[in-house]
Amino acid sequence: MIGPVVVTNGNLNRNDTRGKTITCKAAVAYGPGEPFVVERVLVHPPQKMEVRIKILFTTICHTDLSSWQGKNEAQRAYPRIFGHEACGIAESVGEGVNDMKEGDLVVPIFNGECGDCKYCKCEKTNMCERFGVDPMKKVMASDGATRFSTTDGKPIFHFLNTSTFTEYTVVDSACVVKIDVDGHGDLNPYIKKLTLVVAYQREINKAFDHFTVGKSLRCLLHF
């Protein structure tokens, strides 16, 4: 059952949207290779250990293109909101989320970490059992449901733990990284820097292909 719905106008106070279903624009794919449809969708409130994010910037990756084209039939799930490289602001947080709060600058990540499984605790890999990269995954981990739906109530599937081709998205808190900012609270310099990181993220990931697992590794991004 859909609760109160708030239609976004681009400059909403978070107090107006907290705990409510948001209506916003998203690019929705309805079939393999079909043109994206930019339309209004419903984005439901975050549940336990989830975060709803207002997307500020997003970019497209070849993974989005190949998945949209449906080259792997087993991974097909439509309608779907693609996109997995972005940055945004935490609009609201669900029960149990303590490491970030509303208004924090955040980056949704497609390779999340629960912190408890044997892989998260292993020094040689970070491929989490629950929140690792999984192109087959199309719903939320907590209840097997989606947080997106069409305006007439039909579910819209998630993509790579993130789904960023939308004005708002809901992700598991294990798939969000908070960006620490200086005490003055001005987010603009950080947003500009993160825009560059999002744009070059794919190239940064390529660099890791040349490192050997098991050796000490530190990646430094100098702003």
TrEMBL record:
GO terms for cellular component: cytosol. Keywords: Metal-binding, NAD, Oxidoreductase, Zinc. Residues 48-179 form the Alcohol dehydrogenase-like N-terminal domain. InterPro entries: ADH-like_N, ADH_Zn_CS, GroES-like_sf. Gene3D superfamilies: Medium-chain alcohol dehydrogenases, catalytic domain. It holds the Pfam family ADH_N. It comes from the Eukaryota. The keyword Cell cycle does not apply. Homodimer. This is Alcohol dehydrogenase-like N-terminal domain-containing protein.
